[in-house]
TrEMBL record:
One of its GO terms (cellular component) is signal recognition particle. This is Signal recognition particle 54 kDa protein. GTP binds at residues 104-111, 184-188, 242-245. The lineage of its organism: Archaea, Methanobacteriati, Methanobacteriota, Stenosarchaea group, Methanomicrobia. It comes from Methanohalophilus mahii (strain ATCC 35705 / DSM 5219 / SLP). Residues 3-87 form the Signal recognition particle SRP54 helical bundle domain. The chain holds residues 1 to 290 of 439 of the full protein. Part of the signal recognition particle protein translocation system, which is composed of SRP and FtsY. Archaeal SRP consists of a 7S RNA molecule of 300 nucleotides and two protein subunits: SRP54 and SRP19.
Amino acid sequence: MVMDKLSNSLQDALKKLVGAGRIDERTVNDVVKDIQRALLQSDVNVKMVMQLSKSIKERALDEDVPQGMNPREHVIRIVYEELMKIVGEGTDIPLKPQKIMMIGLQGSGKTTTTAKLARYFQRKGLKPAVVCADTFRPGAYQQLKTLCESLNVAFYGEEGNPDAVGIVERGLAEIDKYDVKIIDTAGRHSLESDLIDEMERIHAISSPDYKLLVLDAGIGQQASEQAKAFNDSVGISGVVISKLDGTAKGGGAMSAVAATDSSIAFIGVGETPQDLEKFEADRFISRLLG
Ligand code: GDP
């Protein structure tokens, strides 16, 4: 079970509940304090941590321990349920013909994730094709082209042409016969107005079924603001958290997901095209708390 993988201090705090006949306020406060510490270390938004603590405390003290459960199991379930409300079940991207637009800041892992997704659909028996509309980052074209070639995935790009919108228009016409069309758009170092403008124009011309925002697991507290700006501009239908193979736990990205009312579709767990996993809330939550 998910909570068996918790940090030692949290395990210790929860142990106090094992023998307890009823749940007393001091023990709950100890448990909540440990949860707060873990979540803040994982970069979860401070306000969110406070709200969560409040609901956990209230529920742990107010609700009767259901029959057949001990107080420890009861509190664990409350913690899990409250976290699930924030993290969400995850977005299920259907296995059918569709257009997907990738968005995110430069360096977030957009291009790598584009190749990962193409491989994912390819392995499910669909025919993917990729359009490189990242005309901003030097090397993006070559990087994506090489990745696609290694995967035997169809690729469209126009090296040296800065007209991203035109590339998308021509690219989509060129790859019309493919099932899953993935558009890799340009990022910037920060959300500048020209990026927003370009995204909106690409969005208008391509009418994507899904807009996937790629967020670096290490993004921290500024994630929510960025995600909101992307959401206001083209709308986010799902999030991919990249680089979860590192030390970062993705709490900032999770806060962004909550702030934009979206949910997580995939996680990136390495640099190669096979390092993509479908999001699993259980594992993500235990990592946040661990
Ligand atoms: P873009 O600017 O958003 O297109 O970013 P890239 O796809 O080029 O990724 C930036 C860097 O992050 C590259 O060095 C990638 O290899 C690396 N990267 C992307 N996704 C992951 C991941 O899930 N795990 C790790 N460890 N590195 C990743």
